[in-house]
Amino acid sequence: MIFLPSKKKPAFVEFVTLIAFIISLVALAIDSMLPALPEIASDLNFGDPNDSHFIISMLFFGMALGQIFFGPLSDTIGRKPAIIGGIVIFALGSLMSYYSFSMWEMMLGRFLQGLGAAGPRIVSVALVRDCFKGREMARVMSFVMTIFILVPVFAPALGQLIINISHWRSIFAMFLVLSFIILCWFGIRQSETLALNKRIHFSFRQLARDSRYIVLIPVTSGYTLTMGLLFGGFLGYLSSAQQIFQYQYQLGQLFAVYFGVLAVSIGVAALVNAHLVMRLGMRRLSFIAMSVVVLLSAPFLWLVVALNGHPPLMLLMGYLVTVFFFFGILFGNLNALAMEPLGEIAGLGSALVGSLSTLISVVLGAIIANAYDGTVTPLITGFAGLSLLCLISMYFTEKQAKRVFARA
User: Fold this and answer.
1) pLDDT tens across 213-245, in order?
2) Among 1.10.10.10, 1.20.1250.20, 3.40.630.10, 3.40.640.10, what is the CATH number of 203-408?
3) What CA–CA distance (Å, rounded) separates 155 from 30?
């Protein structure tokens, strides 16, 4: 029944809300888990408390592989089956995580969650592109992202509430219930948007050929690397935030509040960027934002080392709020810069850029999280070092792009 086309298209508000819920599965699967990490690590006998970061990084690893798979697949079988298939895999991963009794079972469950979540996350954007173009698509995605931004603000508090009244396994039960609701809602109300005559025959040879072409484009590969470096630092924060706020600064359940404040700064930046980018342009704005992050991180790292890795909480929050504001500006612009030369192969390009940058960030984020030693020194060192590498990568990417343009 869920594959049958809807006789009546959902109204605009319902469509936007549905797409926002689909995309938000990823953020919810990440942020609502953070308060539960110590209990999960204890119940499942993780050898090292730092190993709890794998609960976050394995989901991203699954997403990295899923993006490159679901993007081309949706061009062949249609948007609706691809999204439904992804939700089903996400639900299976949630079920496996719910019944896990070892670290490795949990890791496999989280990997499946990420693999499945990649489908709805990537293909839903293509679905919007099928239905709207130009300014109308931008309007729809703006509404969707406004709802999406609210999820990281409230998700940790939701996870904490569930733990307070039940058990960490109930968080995965929530994922199962949400998956079922979204699956029925999407399956019954949303029709297929990709016509049969517009579908592309799937070929591994063609996929490999197009992927090689994309990777060899200097601007795309350069900004993909930059995105991976930048998000690597952010993933390091996501993986160690619970330890920093709840253990190092002993905030307890207030962790959700402080995490939410930092999430708001990224959301505000995304809204501000929509206005600034029209005046300054993506490249100039990105260089300014990255330069500010480098100039803030270098002296703050010196201060953190001088204070033995334990700066006052309000000073740390001031630094993180400022840096995350500029991260919020960079996330969207770097992705747009990587996608700019791709044109007709934007579908595969988006999947490949997302997959490669996520794989890079998973490795770097795991290194930062695994280095946590009871201080914020590893995190701030990661921010300072990776932001400097980002700036260098951006410089050489633009330099190489100018050489290619001059030879053309």
Assistant:
1) 888 888 889 999 999 999 999 999 998 999 999
2) 1.20.1250.20
3) 9
